[in-house]
Each structure stands twice: as structure tokens, then as C-alpha cells.
Amino acid sequence: MTDSHDPAARHAPAAVTGPAPRSGAEPAAPPAPAPSSVSRRRLLGTVGVSAAVAGAALGAGGAVLATGHRAEAAEPATVPFHGARQAGIATPAQDRLCFASFDVAATTDRAALAALLRTWTAAAEAMTRGAGVPGHPGDLQSPPDDTGEAAGLTPGRLTITVGYGPSLFDDRFGLKGRRPSALKPLPYLPREDLDATASDGDLCVQACSDDPQVAFHAVRNLRRLAFGVLNPRWMELGFGRTSSTSPSQATPRNLMGFKDGTRNIDTTDAALMDQHVWIGAEEPQRWIRGGSYLVSRKIRMLLEAWDRDSLGDQQQVFGRDKSSGAPLTGRAERDTPDFTAKADGTYVIAADAHIRLAAHENNKGLRILRRGYSYTDGIDPVTGDLLGGLFFIAYMKDPGQFVTLQRVLGQHDKLNEYIEHVSGGLFATPPGLAAGQDWASQLFGSRTV
Ligand SMILES: C=CC1=C(C)c2cc3[nH]c(cc4nc(cc5[nH]c(cc1n2)c(C)c5CCC(=O)O)C(CCC(=O)O)=C4C)c(C)c3C=C
Ligand SMILES: [Fe+2]
Predict the structure, then answer these.
(1) 122 CA distance to ligand 2 centroid (A)?
(2) Are the CB atoms for 134 and 39 separated by under 8 Å?
(3) For residue 242, is pLDDT > 60?
(4) Is residue 105 part of a domain?
(5) Name one Pfam family in it (predicted).
(6) Does any ligand 1 atom lie closer than 6 A to the CB of residue 263?
(7) Residue closest by Cα to atom 26 of ligand 1
């Protein structure tokens, strides 16, 4: 498994061909840092020392990396947790998402938050390599260290990415002086009426995996470790990644049936990533350099209206051919759109087409890395309409990039007739951790308690 601080190394073909499924009966895991006694006590104190559950101790059951068998042809089944960048940003997008936002509980102090972040680091590291949450295996007087539903499953390239919201840097935890300079609540943007209860949060966790159960398991276990320390604020499940983030991936389709991600940033292009995605030396807060900003938007698609629209109009909305994904001025998906082309005196790619308004050529070179997923909330119990759309996630070196784009899209996009922004979030995602480092010392710096 690659454990390099060179971001490029994570894209190199890994020697790992795929881990064996998790098993409670497997030999001991490679050593993972145990939760601190403080956090462990807190965990036991808040969960309760009640459930004497018989059976194997999943917490110690580290997956043993198998050789000679390939879980997936194209991608290794594990993504290294450690490295210069947090995994889950430049990582080729997995098929499934579980995203959760949390607020720090009123009774939590700086020490307790730091202890939890140390515990989370150990748990996230273990889960991404296919092991269970570390703890005290075999302790029949305590709840199991791991909830168990991922036992027997391969990690499916699980990545766990953490982010911090603007509110975390208020006066509660002594973090005011460490706030990343661009981490401020986003301004009101055109046409939006966001649900505050399903927006924002002090911390977020983005878990992505090719297996939905593995992604859910990761968030569930982090949430469980946070009992009494953090309160869940909102959660979103995603399927059918709606952006390709690597040329090795076929472009997926969104719920409107269009290929989505064709002109996304190629995450293997280091120069583009430095220019548009990674926070660089311009940021005074050194600890966040090498990280990124995550903007999320739950965007409902008005699918009943969309499904009644003509094919020609649907294609005008995006400026692309629905079948091939080609721009209306081209023949193949990856042809460069010609925004000057006219037919009968009008633009072939309409003046209000989504790709015209969003294109970097028309926004002073501005680009973002999209990493969204489709979502569904079932049906509206009153109207019977389908509830679903795009859980938009984008990474960028400055949230102003999103604001600039959304100001234009919110006012002029032909797509607006068929969508509504439901909720959103902004989080600073720190750089990756070196082996032995943890999220607490990274966030709090040398003053960690
Ligand atoms: C503020 C940023 C963006 C929001 C919000 C957004 C919503 C949104 N997009 C689609 C579907 C497509 N988007 C496409 C391209 C595209 N979209 C954005 C930005 C936002 N989209 C950008 C920067 C681009 C690239 C533009 C370019 O350079 O050409 C496409 C075309 C294919 C592609 O290149 O990915 C589709 C399709 C939906 C459905 C949606 C909200 C529900
Ligand atoms: Fe878009």
C-alpha cells in the first residue's frame, strides 16, 4: 500500500491488488493507535457499559491484504489514508457516498473535542484499510468496538474526508486564531431559499466507497464514537457519482440523463489542481495549506417537469447532446464547445445554456472540481412527485470560486426552471495526515490539550 506524501504517488498503480474481506476471525491487525484513555472513558461513559454481546471482537480484526487476487480490474480496493492530501478529493470518485454534518455538543470542551479527533483518526485509518474500529476486543462488558455490518466486505476504495465549518472557529474552542481566511459563511445567492436545519455544521465527514454499506458503516461508526461529543446535524446518501474526476473513468450520467463531468478538472493534472483546488502559500494559516474548501449543495431536480420537456429543449438547457454528451457545436463528447458558433443568427449553444454560463472560458478561467452524487428522498407524500436530484459537492481553493459561478447560474441558467437548491454547506478540508499524526494536533496545533 502506498504511504507516500507525494500526491502523485497515490495515483500510481498501487501494488495492492485488493484486500481480503473483513473477518472477525482474522489474525490481529497491524497496530493502530488506540483511542486515548480520555476518549475511551468518554465513549464508555456515554454509550453505557451494558451490552454484553457475545461473538468475535470485530475491533481487532484487521483485514489482511491478500496478494494474487484482484477485487477490481481498474482500481485497487484500498486507498491510502495517509499522505500529503486527504483522500476523497483527488481520488477517482467512488460509486457511493455517505455524507454527514455534526455540531459540537454544548457540554463538549476543547479537550474532549481533541480526544474525539484522535479517536476518529485511528478509526478512519483502520476502516479505510478494511479493518474494524480499533478498541478493546473481546471486552464482553462493553458494546463492540465496531458495529459489524462491514465485516466480510471489501473496503471498495473507502475514503473518509473531514472538513470544518466556519462555526467551529468561534470562541468555544480557542480556534479563532486558526480560522482559514476564506472560511466564512457564504453570502445569499440568487434564487436560493436554503433549509438552515439541513445546512452547514461545525464538522463534516464525507465517506465514499464503491459499496454503500461500507460508506454508511464508516459514518455510523464515527457518529457512534462521537456520542455525547458531537450531535448529528444532517446526513445525505448518494449514488451514481455524477462526475468523473479522472480520465480513466467513463463519464456517468445524472438523473436528468446527461453525461456529467465531461469537462471536470482532471485530478491527475497537478498544475490544474494547484491552480484551482489546493489551498496554497497565499493562505496565512499554514496548517490548512494543501487542503481545500468543500461546497455542498442539495439540488432538487423537478423531475416530473423535466420528463415532460422535449429532447430538443433538454439539449438546449445544457448545450449538449443527450445521447453522446457532445457539445451542440461538436460531434464527440470531448470536443471543445464553440461558444461563438451561430445558426440562423442565434447561438448554437444558447446564451443561457448551462455549459456556456459555467465554462471557464466565460468565467475568466475560473474552475472547480465537481465530485457530486445523485440522491433520492423517495416521493413527496402529498403530491406523489419524485424527490431527488444532485447532491452537488465541489472542491476549490477559495469558496469565492463557487460564489462567482453560482451568482451567474442562479440568475441566468436555463436549468433553473427544473431545479431548486434545497440546502448547502461550506467546510475547510485540511491537508492529509502523515503516519502518526492526527486530526486533533493538525487542527489545534501545538496548543493541543
Ligand atoms: C456553481 C456550480 C455548479 C452548479 C451548482 C451546477 C449544477 C448542476 N450541473 C448539472 C449538470 C451539468 N453540469 C455540467 C457542467 C458544468 N457544471 C458546472 C458547475 C455547476 N453545475 C461547471 C463548472 C461545468 C463545466 C462547464 C464547462 O466547462 O463546460 C454539465 C456538462 C458536462 C460536464 O462538463 O460536466 C452537466 C450535464 C446539474 C444537473 C446541476 C444541478 C442539478
Ligand atoms: Fe453543472
Answers:
(1) 36
(2) no
(3) yes
(4) yes
(5) Dyp_perox_C
(6) yes
(7) 359
